[in-house]
Amino acid sequence: MKLHDELPVDHRLATVYRVGAGLCGLVLLVFGCLGFADQLSFFDTSGERIAGLSTNGALSLISVVVGVALIAAAVVGGNVASTVNIAVGVLFLVSGFVHLFILDRAANILDFRMSNVVFSFLMGLLIMTFGMYGRVSGGLPHDNPYWRQRHPREAHRHDEASRVPELVHTSSELPPGDGDGARRAADAD
């Protein structure tokens, strides 16, 4: 089973996935680069702050790597960007919960503070929302490619039902040389 076989491609939604991955990746990349610019030590927990968040060299490196991954997903686009957004968003949420429990402990090697935890939750939810947009919902429209992929029979019936008015419209406009018998047969359909 290949991922591209299971997930349909939808060009309208690909823009949302790309923009979300690109913007969030850019924010993380800038945050990480600012941490490197301040030449922070790798596992320092002295409370250096950049843009209101505490950081160290390790957190800066992680931010740069995740930011580059999101930007790369934005360049690829489509279902890849959506899937990467969802995965990174979940990782941010998990990171927020883990760091919430290890605040003010020796295990807090990334120097997280409460502002970092809140940022991790908000960024995770934002990235996940971009990734799940148009893909996960109970009320997807029938022309949505994800709904069509999950409900092939209903999608086929929906396609057939939408073609019926076209057939009636075109059959009533038969050329005049076909005679009344052809016109009555077309009207009977």
The number of helical runs is 8
Elements, N to C (H/E): HHEEHHHHHH
Largest sheet composition = 2 strands, antiparallel
Can you give the mean pLDDT?
Answer: 78
Strand arrangement within the widest β-sheet reads: 1-2
Number of strands: 2
Structural category: mainly alpha
Assembly type of the chains comes to: single chain
Note the gap between the termini: 43 Å
Measured as a percent range, the helix fraction is 55-70%
Globally, the shape reads elongated
Strand content: under 5%
Q: Which stretches are poorly predicted, pLDDT < 50 over at least 5 residues? A: 1-6
State Rg: 26 Å
Task: Chart the SSEs and their pairings.
Elements: H1 3-6, H2 11-37, E1 49-50, E2 53-54, H3 57-76, H4 78-101, H5 114-132, H6 145-150, H7 152-171, H8 179-188
Antiparallel strand pairs: 1-2
Model description:
The protein has eight helices and two strands. The protein is mainly alpha-helical. The protein has a two-stranded antiparallel ribbon. Strand 1 and strand 2 form a beta hairpin. Helix 2 packs antiparallel against helix 3 and helix 3 runs antiparallel to helix 4 (78-101). Mean pLDDT is 78; it is low at 1-6.
Q: What is the gist of this entry?
A:
The protein is mostly helical and 189 residues long. 69% of the residues lie in helices and 2% in strands. Helix 2 runs antiparallel to helix 3 (57-76) and helix 3 (57-76) packs antiparallel against helix 4 (78-101).
